[in-house]
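Hi V.,

You were right to ask for the full record rather than a summary. Here it is.
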Amino acid sequence: MLSARHAAAFVVLFLFVQSARAHYLYVWVNGGEGEHGQVNVAFQESANPGPGKYLDPIIETGRTWVRTPGADKPTAIATKPMAKDGTRWIGGAIPVGGPRSVESYGKYGVYAYGKTNVRLHYFARVLECESAADLKALARSEECKLDVVPELADGTLSATVLWEGKPVAGRKVLVRGPKGFKYVRVETDEKGRMSFPVEIPGRYTFRAGYDYPEEGTDGGKEYTVVRYHTTLALDVPVRE
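Predicted structure:
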């Protein structure tokens, strides 16, 4: 018979394995649309429009905004559902130019992983920076309860996972990169930090999760676990 400790570890491991095959919130920018580009938000397995089967709760609960260096507060972005050739996503005109961090949030609600009901929340953002100063100014998002904070120095890309502003050790961070970069899973150290050398220029995407036990009801469904996911995309190189 499993002890309570081992049972809890099994549940967390089970949920992580399940979530690896799940959908996540992703943000990317189409710079050729409008004066300052168009933000696109997808709830899919990757940062591309898809069927949007699970998009409706994100449309209902979501919000999207942009941060720029020196601004007192984020600027809201008006978005609406978009559809084309059998795909669905959320899109809207960005009101300001870069450098910038374009960010989004959505609550999916309660989803059953086997016999465990989990209340799911999602953050996503994309950083558009040309210099290390811009990256430093925009790296941390106060609006994201779960955040991945990047840093680039001496050819090494580092990231710190924060939960409510505090570093989280032992988090699994999944990283995708440009063609030729091997998809990797890195665990944060005791300071919530992970790093790897960047040898291939292009877009890098980080994905991390955080969950904790909590009992409640959302949308008429009971849950016993709350889980947050976050994704971050940025292009390398950035001038140091």
